[in-house]
Amino acid sequence: MPPASHTHASSGPGHRLRSATDGVRFDRLGRTALLVGFLVLFGFYASAGLRMWTARADSIQRREAVVKLQNERTVLLRERKALDGQLGVATQARRLGMVLPGEVPFVITGLPGETH
């Protein structure tokens, strides 16, 4: 049986066993607080980055919508210019199959290249 003074083989000079009364380990507490602080800071940066990413995607979609609407406006202005005056209105009405009062409409069928 070993002597009573050597009951703890791992405890050498300068080592002592921790007990519940030793108190708080401030080195561990400091490291934990620093880690939590870094995680919170990273969360703020990640949140800002995500907002920037979504704002960029939204601006790209809006830019595409603006280009589409500008093209549509150009087409509509061209149509409006074509309809200016009585001649433009009459031409569009004839394309739609309308005739002036007193006119007799004729439909020509059987032309080459016509398919029914």
Q: How would you portray this structure in words?
A:
- The protein is mainly alpha-helical and 116 residues long.
- It has a domain at 26-95.
- It contains two helices and no strands.
- It is rod-shaped.
- The protein starts with 25 loop residues before the first helix and ends in a 21-residue tail after the last helix.
Summarize the topology.
Elements: H1 26-83, H2 85-95
Secondary-structure element pattern, one letter each: HH
Number of helices, where a helix is a run of at least 4 consecutive DSSP H or I residues: 2
State the major sheet: none
Q: Which of globular, elongated, flat, extended, rod-shaped describes the shape?
A: rod-shaped
Rg: 43 Å
Helix content: 55-70%
C-alpha termini separation = 114 Å
Share in β-strands: under 5%
On the 0 to 100 scale, the average pLDDT is: 84
Low-confidence stretches: none
Main features:
rod-shaped; 2 helices; about 120 residues; about 60% helix; mainly alpha
In short:
This protein has 116 residues and is mostly helical. The chain has helices spanning 26-83, 85-95. It has a domain at 26-95.
